[in-house]
Design goal:
Blueprint lengths: L1 H22 L1 H41 L6 H6 L4 E4 L5 E5 L16 H11 L25 H6 L3 H10 L8 H22 L1 H11 L9 H9 L8 H12 L10 H17 L5 H9 L2 H10 L10 H18 L3 H10 L3 E4 L3 H18 L6 E7 L6 E5 L18 E2 L6 H11 L8 E4 L3 E4 L2 E4 L8 E4 H6 L3 H11 L1 H10 L9 E2 L5 E2 L5 H4 L6 E2 H12 L10 E5 L5 E4 L10 H16 L16 E6 L5 E7 L4 E7 L12 H15 L13 E7 L20 E7 L11 E7 L15 E7 L16 H4 L8
Parallel strand pairs: 1-3
Antiparallel strand pairs: 1-2, 3-14, 4-5, 4-18, 6-13, 7-10, 8-9, 11-12, 14-15, 16-17, 17-18, 19-20, 21-22
This protein binds zinc ion (3 copies).
Length: 781
């Protein structure tokens, strides 16, 4: 209380003082001066603002007057032919986008549900704004790269249409140019809306959207996915298509049901909020089990490729994905750029190699007289550049039901094709194992997702085996044990590093179960989605490329309609593995071809080594062979689209051999080598314990010679002598240990194996039993 009074008194005094000062002449003059200065500053500011405004208006006029014109013709038919060339510059194919227009549907032939679903998904304010949403005007200044999603989502439907159809292939520009383009986009949107009106724009929009594959426009999508006309699309179906069109690579309702379904739910709830559907319709749509009917409709189709061959379709999908990732195109925009944008695409296709591959596949087909439509895919690449030289994606003109290309975006189970990469490579490269490390191939139980599992029954388990033997004989039990010991995550990380793009880290299926490839199934090559031939071939290519990464590329250069290089495509290799690790696995894979199960692939060219690996999956649903020379890597897959058991006696190995022989001879390559790294040493080991072989012991083992020359990274080779073999004198007559009394002619030296058996294996007959060790001949007394 006291304090307050004091301060109030103080305040009164202050005001009085100030008043006195203000009215004194001295101060009045000073204030006048200050006021004049302030006026001048204000004036200056206004002048600057005026100049800036004039400049801005000028700039805006410039931007607007340089904007492309927009009219129906341009929206619908702005088309320039794209040309693809092979590696020698010969014209391969022309894409003129013909066929895109044939499914055009007028707005009154598009169901109300479909119109509302797309408005809900793409522009909820569509019927309220005038082409641009003024609240979002400043989105123009957001850099696309920093927040592409954010900036993109703020475009109105009209702007999206203009961006997709008018600004095709002009995206690869500076940030200033991008701002200019976005301003033009908004200007054109306003102009276009006032000219043709909302309904016409919606009609154009729905007819020019990209729905994956070669499907453009809602008419084509409705027919492809639901076998019906756009006017009959239900709410649920419309939401599926609206979700798909967000990005056909991410929301494919057949391939990626879960992500499409999440997006669909999102769209349906927006529709509910916008009151374009009722609560009941919303519930009905959600309960509609649409994905099942969608698959059956889809299975009726036997598609044909618009592209002449599978190589072209692979190039197109790589270009589309690069335009999206590297140049910020929308999916629809990228599709238009490729089919109507007048691009020049310089591909890596080697027409010579392609025709050798096609011819040999035909020869094999004729020979086996296959009648049940066996499919085959082939990837032929140069590992040192990543260039895919040739490709076969199935029988000509028979596209898989899921669309795409069997060599590139079609996945199958790899089976034990994966094991050298998922298990043995990390085992050697990082986990301290060697080719000579010994494990027991025996019945082995392990826990997988809480279930107890046994390794696959091999009829007969091999007993103690080295890493080399496990690879050569496709042994599952040692692979599982090895992966368990060094960790599943490590194996998974190696596959990621090698470039496998279809692995599932963690995913929920439609029933809410969590599924993941981070599991021991990696050791046997059973994956959630399987692998593509392209990824598998490129991964083996890493071994061929001395441990350096291999990025498959289908084209080297992309040139836009004005002759500017949009971008170049090069493999930038990095060292993924120790060179020695790659060489050691290659050494085993050479043996696999030269004397192992892959003998049919042996090129038999003295100075040209080759390495490779083959496998068939459970139930013989898939057959694989992937191999490489110092120059080329090629991978072959065989199987039926319906995953039936392969009945044909087609041999991937033989086909691989014929193609490789011809390609190398056509290219006049007669010799080469897998260069041995400096830090590789060799020594003789006992293959039952992995230690140094002992003369007159390991080579005399009862089971047969167990000595083998093995390669090691210097410093990892064994230093101790074999301790698993023991030599006893045995009386042949009694089969027991010989005594002094046994006649010399009846006594022989036998080398037994010291081992504790976990179950019956091939070792069992040769193991020293306690009974034998304590026995004595009871015949000669
Ligand atoms: Zn030994
Ligand atoms: Zn030994
Ligand atoms: Zn005896």
């Amino acid at each position: 209380m006291i304090k307050m009074e004091v301060s109030m008194k103080f305040g009164e005094n202050e005001i009085l003082e100030r008043e006195q000062k203000l009215f004194s002449t001295e101060h009045r003059f000073l204030n006048r001066l200050r006021l004049d200065a302030l006026c001048f500053q204000l004036f200056l500011l206004l002048a600057i603002l005026a100049v800036i405004s004039v400049c801005l208006i000028g700039a805006f006029r410039g931007i607007v007057s340089s904007a492309p014109t927009v009219n129906e013709k341009q929206i619908l038919t702005s088309s320039k032919t794209t040309i693809l060339y092979d590696k020698d510059g010969n014209e391969l194919q022309r894409l003129d986008g013909s066929g895109i227009r044939q499914n055009y549907v007028a707005l009154n032939k598009i169901s109300m549900a479909a119109r509302n679903a797309f408005i809900a998904a793409d522009d909820t304010e569509y019927y309220k704004h005038h082409g641009v949403d003024i609240r979002n005007f400043f989105y123009a200044f957001y850099p696309d790269s920093a927040s592409a999603q954010y900036a993109g989502s703020r475009r109105t439907l009209t702007q999206k249409l203009i961006r997709n159809q008018i600004f095709v292939s002009d995206n690869n520009s500076s940030s200033m140019e991008r701002i200019v383009q976005k301003i033009q986009e908004q200007y054109l949107a306003v102009q276009f809306e006032s000219e043709v009106g909302k309904d016409k724009i919606l009609e154009y929009y729905l007819n020019t959207l990209y729905f994956g594959g070669n499907r453009i426009g809602i008419g084509a999508a409705a027919e492809y996915y639901f076998d019906k006309k756009a006017q009959d699309l239900t709410i649920s179906e419309s939401a599926v298509l609206a979700a798909l069109a967000q990005d056909p690579a991410v929301y494919d309702p057949v391939e990626q049901q879960k992500s499409n379904s999440n997006k669909r739910t999102e769209i349906l709830s927006v529709m509910l909020n916008m009151e374009t559907i009722s609560e009941d319709e919303y519930e009905d749509a959600l309960g509609d089990n649409i994905y099942i009917s969608l698959q059956t409709a889809n299975q009726k189709k036997t598609g044909t490729t618009e592209a002449k061959n599978y190589y072209v379709s692979a190039v197109i999908s790589q270009v589309i994905s690069d335009l999206k990732e590297r140049a910020g195109y929308s999916a629809t925009q990228a599709y238009h750029a490729v089919y109507q944008g007048g691009l020049k695409i310089y591909t890596c296709l080697d027409s010579e190699i392609q025709s050798i591959c096609e011819k040999e596949v035909e020869v094999q087909r004729q020979r086996t007289g296959d009648r049940k439509k066996l499919q085959l895919s082939l990837v032929f690449m140069d590992q040192s550049t990543g260039k895919v030289k040739a490709l076969i994606g199935g029988r000509q003109g028979e596209v898989p039901q899921t669309g795409g290309n069997r060599a590139v975006d079609y996945t199958r189970q790899p089976g034990s094709m994966l094991t050298p990469l998922s298990v043995w490579l990390p085992a050697i490269d990082t986990a301290g194992m060697t080719l000579g490390t010994v494990q027991d191939d025996c019945l082995y139980s392990y826990s997988e997702n809480g279930h107890q599992q046994n390794t696959r029954d091999q009829n007969e388990y091999q007993g103690l085996v080295t890493t080399r033997d496990s690879i050569l004989k496709h042994l599952e039990s040692p692979a599982v044990q090895a992966m368990e010991s060094f960790g599943i995550q490590t194996g998974y990380d190696y596959l990621k590093k090698l470039g496998f793009s279809t692995l599932v880290e963690k995913q929920e299926d439609m029933d809410g179960n969590v599924i993941s490839d981070v599991s021991l199934s990696l050791a046997s090559g059973t994956l959630v989605n399987g692998v593509s031939n392209l990824d598998l071939t490129a991964a083996y290519g890493v071994l061929a490329n001395e441990g350096k990464s291999v990025k498959p590329i289908f084209y080297t250069k992309l040139v836009d309609k004005t002759g500017n290089i949009l971008f170049k495509n090069e493999q930038k290799s990095s060292q993924l593995l120790e060179t020695a690790s790659a060489w050691l696995i290659t050494n085993v894979l050479r043996e696999y071809i030269e004397t192992g199960a892959g003998k049919a692939a042996d090129l038999g060219i003295e100075k040209l080594p080759a390495a490779g690996y083959g496998a068939s999956t459970k139930g013989n649903k898939d057959q694989w062979f992937t191999g490489y020379t110092p120059y080329y890597t090629a991978g072959i897959w065989c199987g039926y689209d319906d995953s039936g058991m392969i009945t044909s006696d087609i041999s991937c190995e033989t086909l691989w051999k014929q193609i490789m022989k011809q390609v190398h001879s056509t290219k006049k390559i007669e010799k080469g080598s897998f260069k041995i790294p400096d830090d590789i040493v060799a020594c003789n080991i006992c293959t039952k314990c992995g230690k140094l072989a002992v003369e007159d012991l390991c080579n005399q083992a009862l089971s047969g010679d167990t000595v083998r020359r093995e390669y090691f990274v210097s410093g990892t080779q064994p230093t101790e002598n074999c301790d698993c073999h023991v030599k006893y004198r045995v009386c042949k007559k009694s089969g027991k240990l010989a005594t002094e009394k046994c006649p010399k002619s009846q006594v022989e030296e036998r080398v037994y194996l010291i081992k504790e058996e976990q179950g019956t294996t091939k070792d069992t007959p040769y193991v020293l039993t306690p009974k034998l060790r304590s026995s004595q001949c009871n015949i000669h007394k």
